[in-house]
Specification:
Order of helices and strands: EEEEEEEEEEE
Strand content: over 45%
Helix content: under 10%
Low-confidence stretches: none
Radius of gyration: 13 Å
């Protein structure tokens, strides 16, 4: 079955950086959409960044210029480089993947999800 496993979360000071990874098994990212979402306590899951099947990237306004999403289709790994981190970036970060019709940065566009990795910025 499809499995996505996130890693790289942790605690960091304001202005610091983290790099998240998401490894897929029994699945290939090639030709599919991939994304990072996050969820702060008491809030809904929000889209952070995504790469569509053609390789086009899309970012939430709140992270533009600070976060970079990338993927390696050969080892089926998705990355999120996060720089200049702010307290409001804190939350659980999830990777998701899906195919076909898609609404940009909408949770409904993604069929498979990882368990999440915690990011705390203080």
């Amino acid at each position: 079955h499809v499995q996505l496993v996130e890693s790289g979360g942790g605690s960091v000071q304001v202005g610091g950086s983290l790099r998240l990874s998401c490894a897929a098994s029994a699945y290939t990212f090639r030709g599919n959409h991939v994304a990072w979402f996050r969820q702060a306590p008491g809030k809904g899951r929000e889209g952070v960044a995504e790469i569509d099947a053609s390789g086009t990237t899309n970012y939430a306004d709140s992270v533009k210029g600070r976060f970079t999403i990338s993927r390696n289709n050969w080892n089926n790994t998705l990355y999120l480089q996060m720089n200049s981190l702010k307290p409001e970036d804190s939350g659980t970060y999830y990777c998701g993947t899906g195919s076909g019709w898609r609404l940009p940065l909408r949770e409904m566009s993604y069929a498979y999800w990882g368990q999440g990795t915690q990011v705390t910025v203080s």
